[in-house]
Amino acid sequence: MVHFYRSTADTIADANIVLIGVPDESKSHAKRKGTNKGPDILRLASNESDFFKREGKIFPICPMRGSLDNKRVLDAGNVKKENLYKLIFDLVSNKKIPIVIGGDHSITTVALQAIGDALGKIGLLYFDAHPDFVSSTRDYYGSILTDSTQSLDFKKSMLIGIRAAEPEEIENAEKVGLDIVTPMDIAEVGVLKIAERFMSRMSDKKYVSVDLDCLDPAFAPGVSVPTPSGLSSIDLIYLLKQAVGSGIVGIDIVELSPDFDVNSITAYLAARILLECMASIK
Q1: Which candidate, 52, 109, 120, 228, has a CA 20 to 30 Å from the CA of 130?
Q2: Whole-number mean pLDDT of the chain?
Q3: Number of domains in the chain
Q4: Looking at the predicted structure, is the pLDDT value of residue 204 above 90?
Q5: Is 72 inside any structural domain?
């Protein structure tokens, strides 16, 4: 496993943020494969892009806003998907914040079930090109919201970046009162209004899930299902930093597909997303 330079705690007991890699793509139907390589590639990208080496010393870069001061981060390494539920359940039960890096997006289903069982229903802020609310097929990366219904308060949840929805997904979202924001909505009203919209809606217990295909492929070509007309990188990071400021119970970053990346730009962006999220946790 790749050593993650940002890991500063020695044990889970000493940490308040725990990074977990899940190199699993067993529930992906994507033609592009390779998200199982995502966790270690993201760690490598962080080590390469978030630090400068000079005169035998390593210097970390600072986040744009927020701070890693007093953040005790532990990289718990890579785990098998079948062991993820218990790990996350134990972490959130002990007031630790798990950050899961994938792997395909179905990993989120496990995380939501564990957190829901530990804390009750939570709000979900879901960044994705796809709603993942298919109900005609279950137990795969396109049915996450259907499979996680028992863990979610849909009226305190929001999907952002959606632009490739199946008709049944829109119907399912409307039935439960789930708010959907498309990139066109952001173009019309701007990120400030969208941030206000989810901050007024979201639960004080919220989980943030980032499928990197929420981004436009110009910013993130290295994903499983690239979809044009997505979010810009700075819009995504701004919204994430607003979202994770308080009440956050877990985060994931998924669907990094390194074999399809271009000059590591998706991996470096994923590393920056991870840095900025950690820095904004309160």
Answers
A1: 120
A2: 96
A3: 1
A4: no
A5: yes
Burial class (CB in 10 A: 0-12, 13-18, 19+), 280: buried
Q: Is residue 195 part of a domain?
A: yes
Grade residue 146 by pLDDT with cuts at 50, 70 and 90.
very high
Reported as a pLDDT band with limits 50, 70 and 90, residue 81 is very high
pLDDT confidence tier of residue 253, bands split at 50, 70 and 90: very high
Separation of alpha carbons 219 and 119, rounded Å:
35
Q: Is the pLDDT of residue 202 over 90?
A: no
Residues 89-118: tens digit of each pLDDT: 999 999 999 999 999 999 999 999 999 999
User: Within a domain: residue 3?
Assistant: no
Average pLDDT over residues 144-151: 98
Residue 81 identity: K
| Residue 255 structure tokens | 């669907």
CATH number, residue 194: 3.40.800.10
Contact, 104 vs 37, CB < 8 A? Answer: no
Compute CA 9 distance to the chain's CA centroid, rounded to the nearest angstrom: 22
Residue 2 lies in a domain: no
State how far the Cα of 106 lies from the Cα of 147, in Å rounded to an integer: 9
Q: Is the pTM of this model over 0.70?
A: yes
